[in-house]
Amino acid sequence: MKKIQVKQVKSAIRRPKNQKRTLIALGLRKMNQVVEHNASPAVLGMVNTVKHLVSVEEV
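Structure (tokenized):
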């Protein structure tokens, strides 16, 4: 399975609660934090929800 790196590039301040919870579910708590996940449909759906707050790269 492919791996992706997700980096938070924008703040979660003044964002809807579902977007804040999605960032926490992805493991992102601070700006510029990078986490690595398998590219499963569930993770890709979460990334799509907060695509304006994160950047994604394949590993």
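DSSP finds two helices and three strands in the chain. The two ends are 11 Å apart (CA to CA).
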